[in-house]
């Protein structure tokens, strides 16, 4: 523990010195750091998807720096400091885990989540609505998954996960009808409904849809890069090839990708 505390103290001291002496660090604000923090979060997400533990460690350091930076700025206006940040999250964790720090009983992780959402609604200055805590700026796929997690926490969910497939089929049929009708606005709405139902299905089966889609993005990119490279080696141009020729090389790419 002493080593961890000393390491954290060292970081705080470095931040104090940078804020005092470095021209770049001195001029930063909450607003100027915001986009950089978002970028660092995505870099951490990339490292996690790749399973690169040393990169995860590095990116966690970058995010920790941002947390310390924000706390330092907050301390300069006497609004809050890093101790307030730590105390705040500690108190929240204790309050939201009564099954650990009090006498509440839970049977499984799902009951923990249900209690969590109910406790958040009871908190002073907390969310007045279950969905109030979902950031509006989240990407749509991530937001849909978070919305579904939130409402599940108060019991709004399928009794049996297999029931979701009827909903997926229903949304697919409604989409097909609107495609036939040719109404662009209704087609967009039905595509949204279908995506939402598929995200719901992924959640019910323990699959993070964002991670699943990103894995497919990466897989497609690898295979397309192979197709492009192989085509160039053959002295050909993709634009001059027919689909059958491209598909033959695509099948090769799938074999190499296994």
Report on the architecture of this protein:
The protein is mostly helical. It is 75% helix and 0% strand. It has twelve helices and no strands. α1 packs across α4 (53-76), α3 (30-50) packs antiparallel against α4 and α11 (209-233) packs across α12 (243-256). It is extended.
List the helices and strands and how they pair.
Layout lengths: L1 H20 L1 H4 L3 H21 L2 H24 L5 H15 L1 H4 L7 H14 L17 H13 L11 H18 L2 H21 L4 H25 L9 H14 L2
Helix pairs in contact: 1-4, 3-4, 8-10, 9-10, 11-12
Based on helices, strands and strand pairing, what is the structural class? mainly alpha
Count of DSSP-assigned helices: 12
Low-confidence stretches: none
Instruction: Please tell me what the overall shape is.
Output: extended
Mean pLDDT: 90
Helical percentage: over 70%
How far the N terminus sits from the C terminus, by CA atoms, comes to 44 Å
Write down how many β-strands occur, each being a DSSP E stretch of 2 or more residues.
0
* Sheet of most strands: none
Order of helices and strands: HHHHHHHHHHHH
Give the DSSP E fraction (strand runs of 2 or more residues): under 5%
Q: What value does the Rg take, in angstroms? A: 25 Å
In short:
This protein is mainly alpha-helical and 258 residues long.
Task: Quickly list its features.
mainly alpha, extended
